[in-house]
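To fix ideas, we quote verbatim one protein's residues and fold tokens.
>
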Amino acid sequence: MRARVDDVELIVEGSGASTIVMIHGWPDTYRLWDGQVAALKDRYRCVRFSLPGFEGAGAKRAYTLDEVVETIRHVVEQANPGERVTLLLHDWGCFYGYQFAMRHPQLVERVIGVDIGDAGSRRNLAELGIGGKLMVLAYQLWLALAWRIGGRVGDAMARAVARVLRCPTDRRTIHSRMGYPYAVRWLGAAGGLQGVRVFEPQVPMLFLYGERKPLMFHSRAWAQQLAARPKSRVLGFATGHWVMIGREREFNAVLAEWLAETDVRLAQRA
């Protein structure tokens, strides 16, 4: 099923009592989750959409945090009215999805975060050190400038970063307009980031991350605290940032196992 919600197209596949809303990050689209939909749609309703502005059509613009969170709310309420959903998140999808979960806890049953934990927290920045902070600043500011410049030059700048980061996304689908989250953060586009809260999960959470990358987007203390929470789990994979592609089979197996375990526990609680 396909439907229009705000500025995005909603894709719903599969069936089941529970709904999983999948949100990607830079420089991806809803297609990032193809492998997970194939693995889960026999048991779950899988709901996907591309973040506003990430598809090729439309004029360049920056979306505020409030706008993106509201789009997620409208997606959840239309796809699964009156029920709570599971969030499956990656990269900027984690950032927006975590903010949504804190603002609308009544709509979220479980959270699955991929590779982004307490990124930007004092503990995470301390572990990154000066070198890591400079790396983050370099690629994120570059992408913010690519968004600002736009056109063929901006697109080439964005694709250059994707190549350096070994992004598995089809280069032909990558464009500078996807970089507006970085422009919002670093250049103050659309008023800058306002109302950001530190994510503290209040529901069962599965956190999966890649171990083979130059930067970690979570602190060790955050991961340890999460792993100690009831019905939550933390697991690293021998791959990079795009864990769901780099270790697809293992990723899907862990995903399905944890979902089944928490399905039972949530049903018992109800």
Summary: The beta strands are 2-5, 8-13, 18-23, 44-48, 85-90, 108-114, 205-210, 233-237.
